[in-house]
């Protein structure tokens, strides 16, 4: 059994993927070839944002966004401690300080009720993460940000394709960033990412920053990075986009099936999917008090699992100095209890029943 089945996906899309890759090999424009602009146009149309800027990774998307906003030394950015390290990493890389705000136990997303108390005169942005595929409370976060004149950067690395109040993730705030890492719901065959905004000036800055701050050839108007997304990776995504809506539907169906079968299992706690939003279930994650025993039982039955994330960022050695290690108790509790089950559009009903049966036996 695969945790994420990319091989079956490739077989299903092989003619389209191979044709797109061959097209790039034929024209030979491996950097900023025509597929880059084509993908950006399609992704912008999909989200409803005015601009899409493809970049080398989800991490680069976050980094370039902070740079475009001019955030740097002495500034603070409010974010969550319960996420992949890249979220905080980029804040530190531009010289700013990550301010960690605890999460909701029900969703594992940043708790908007705790954000305002963390705002100081040095706060320059709020960066919520749409964890496990479900957007955070973006309207409430946006209202807080608006009261304080702050931009919101949605870290949507796990939620591309999800919706909030009928709007697409990545187009819920001033800036949205996503990742196309292979295991993502929409993934390429290497690293890749994208930034979304409807602000023309920010989009211009982001496009320049991703090519070393270059306004035109050999004219560098700002500090930049080498952050372009490869043409070949864009070609892969163009082929995958044609089937993406179907894959999102399958993920929703499988998520509902998991929830229905696991809801009454003793010692299993499910995360809440809010009624005003959808999830692409980048991971299907549950909580158990005896995680190590459950993982061992599932492994013995040939069922792969993963833990996202075992240590909150404010307890990581590199980030402990930015926040007291015990100031986010909900994140700390989740880190001890969460684990993720196999989730991909080709997961069979039989395999899902086998997974649920093993969880039921192990969690009791």
Question: Which characteristics define this entry?
Answer:
364 residues; alpha/beta; Aspartate Aminotransferase, domain 2; Aspartate Aminotransferase, domain 1; four-stranded mixed sheet
Give the helices and strands as they follow along the chain: HHEHEHEEHEEEEEHEEHEEHHEH
Q: What is the CATH top level name of the largest domain?
A: Alpha Beta
Describe the strand arrangement of the main beta sheet, using strand numbers: 1-9-8-5
User: How many domains would you count in the coordinates?
Assistant: 2
CATH topology of the largest domain: Aspartate Aminotransferase, domain 2
Cα end-to-end separation: 23 Å
Mean pLDDT: 97
**Strand segment count:** 14
Low-confidence stretches: none
CATH superfamily of the largest domain: Type I PLP-dependent aspartate aminotransferase-like (Major domain)
Radius of gyration: 20 Å
| Helix run count | 10
The computed structural class is: alpha/beta
What's the layout of helices and strands?
Blueprint: H1 6-27, H2 34-47, E1 51-55, H3 58-68, E2 76-79, H4 86-93, E3 97-100, E4 123-127, H5 138-147, E5 153-155, E6 163-164, E7 167-168, E8 175-179, E9 193-197, H6 200-209, E10 214-216, E11 219-220, H7 231-262, E12 269-270, E13 284-287, H8 291-300, H9 329-337, E14 338-341, H10 349-363
Parallel strand pairs: 2-3, 2-4, 5-8
Antiparallel strand pairs: 1-9, 6-7, 8-9, 10-11, 12-13, 13-14
Helix pairs in contact: 1-7, 2-7, 3-4, 3-6, 7-10, 8-10
